[in-house]
Amino acid sequence: MKVKHIAEISIALLFARWKQTLIAAIGVTFSIALFITLLGFMEGLNGLLDSLVLNRTPHIRLFNDIRPTEIQPIEISEKYKNHYNFIKSIKPAIARNQLHNVDAILNTLEKDNRVEGVAPRTLAQAFYSLGTIELNGMVNGIDVEKEAKYYSFADYIPEGNYMDLKNVANSIILGIGAAEKMLAKIGDVIIVTTTSGDQFPLKVVAYFQTGMADYDKVQSFVNISTTQKILGKSNSYINELQIKLKDLNNAPPIALEYSKIFKVDAEDIQTANAQYSTGSDIRSLISYAVGITLLIVAGFGIYNILNMMIYEKMDTIAILKATGFAGKDVKRVFINIALSIGAFGIIAGSIVGFLLCFMIDNIPFEIAAMPTITTYPIDYGINYYIIAGVFALFTTYFAGWFPARKASMVDPVVIIRGK
Amino acid sequence: MLDKKVLEAKSIYKTFTDPVKIDVLKDVSFTLDYGEFASIIGKSGCGKSTLLYILSTMDTDYKGELFIDNQSTYKKSEKELAAIRNEKIGFVFQFHYLLNEFSVLKNIMLPGFKSNKFTEEELEKRAMNLLEDLDIKKLAHKMAHQLSGGEKQRVAIARSMINDPIIIMGDEPTGNLDNKNTDIVFEIFNELTSKYKKTLLIVTHDMSFADKTNRIITMDDGRIVS
């Protein structure tokens, strides 16, 4: 029995009840379209929310934490070497949260081909002076080009040109919250007071906005040399190296490796932001559950319609069997019908799903927290189409299998003699 | 033909148990030789149709032995029996049983698709020849449901012939037809034996039809009486 002829019989039966068939196919189309739209929208949103945090979070941070010396002097002492030494209230000694030998570390990192880029930071505690009032502030010394390249710094600048940080001497990018409090416009000069009491006039060249109000009220960015100047340190004074890896998933082992090699503290992104991926995972899981439920419901539709078709086409099945078609051939015909409905639904559903995604993608969506986002986020990943397609094929196959088995077991004698 | 037996039934018993136990066939044995045109007659309920469906391999729930073309059908799978039906047996029913979804030509060709004995072109040619022989060539491209009863039955006969079977069985093939069409169908059957040398086994209660056949098998109460 050739596939072509099985197909021919299937098609004839399909079109004999084309209205019902169409309804089943629309069911599949609808569920595939919604699956794709739901997943695309949800994953788009996940990506957006994740990128809100993850994009500007370094994959590995290298820094020197303030902590007491691990080996206390008494333990080195020859005299008390074989004693148990109990020491209470240990305090850290001189806080040196600068990274030592930064040039050597940078050289090594540059040669490491797992590393995409490194951005240095120098942090300075400071106050923004506003007449007689002083606001708490944190001045981040950055290399603005690297920040823009590796951490999408530009995405968070709603106003002003971030490159001015490098081009204009003694310039500052203020968090939008801080700028509002200080009524500082772009081009204004504000005064920053260091913890040691020195005052620096800095020119506002841009605002930045992360969407986290507390962060935007306190943080500001200046060129790294400006912080070093504010702190009165040399140009090798760097607090932190922020490493971007080629593959984010390698962060934990590499962080461990660097902390051993460089004898510094290394924190990987997974440890620092564990809760974000958990949230995304659960949202994805719920979306998949809903999407797959839709596909299964469509499968029941196909099951129902095929069952009805079999009752209506009992005569046809009986005659096929009487003229020598085996049960298996009849089964193939009905599974073919189910799969054709599924295939039609997959193709139409993918198109409708894409159009729905496209529509959502063009709905304006502007929120203050994300200046670069203007429309709803959509993930156009091909994988959602593949998952929906594969799963729909499975569902329709099984939805067809049970009625097809029933059809294959029709006893022609009962039908023919019953007339 | 060396062996002339086309069909042989050896002591076939059949019992219905639902709703009460009834012995429908009791020790039915007979043989059908090559080229015979036989009819089975008997009162309604005597088991003649039941016997025919057993002989056609569609009904497998019986005791006894059945040989078709000297092949035993004992313990054959559903698939193997379907193949036997497809290639060796042509069947004509009382109610035409054409598939309304297909054209006349496709209806005739369908059993041929299953057997794969002929290519599609050959099948189409064979089908057209059969239609021509039965004088209904002009109907070839009509849909099955557009035909009259007599025409449908003639198409059904053409379909039974498509795989060049060795035996053609009919279950009251003229039962639903008027006299004129009955005569036409009989003439066709007659031609099948004379021209195509087919073996025919027809269940009927139309005595005038049976009288014209070569051999009459009479059944009464589940037994063959003559």
Brief summary of the model shown:
The complex is a heterodimer of chains A (about 425) and B (about 230). Chain A is α+β, with helices and mostly antiparallel strands and about 425 residues long.
Provide keyphrases for this structure.
heterodimer, A: 419 residues, alpha+beta, 2 domains, six-stranded mixed beta barrel, elongated, B: 226 residues, alpha/beta, Rossmann fold, six-stranded mixed sheet, four-stranded antiparallel sheet, 7 helices, 10 strands, 35% helix
Task: Describe the protein.
The complex is a heterodimer of chains A (419) and B (226). Chain A has 419 residues and is α+β, with helices and mostly antiparallel strands. Chain A has two domains: 3-54 and 276-418, no CATH class; 60-68 and 95-272, no CATH class. In chain A, 55% of the residues lie in helices and 16% in strands. Chain A has 16 helices and ten strands. Chain A has a six-stranded mixed barrel, surrounded by four helices. Chain A is elongated, with a radius of gyration of 33 Å. Chain A starts with a helix and ends with a helix. The model of chain A has no long low-confidence stretch (mean pLDDT 85). By secondary structure, chain B is of the alpha/beta class. Chain B has one domain (5-218): P-loop containing nucleotide triphosphate hydrolases (Rossmann fold), CATH 3.40.50.300. Helix content of chain B is 35%, strand content 27%. Chain B contains seven helices and ten strands. In chain B, the strands form two sheets. Chain B has a six-stranded mixed beta sheet with strand order 6-7-8-3-9-10. In chain B, helix 3 packs across helix 4 (120-133) and helix 3 (104-115) packs parallel to helix 5 (149-161). The longest helix of chain B is centred in the last third of the chain and has 16 residues, at 179-194. Chain B is globular, with a radius of gyration of 17 Å. The mean pLDDT of chain B is 80. Chain A binds chain B through residues 1-2, 5, 8-9, 12-13, 15-16, 315-316, 318-329, 411-413, 416-417, 419, and chain B through 49, 53, 56, 58-59, 78-79, 82-87, 89, 91, 93-95, 97-102, 106, 110-111, 113-116, 159, 163, 171.
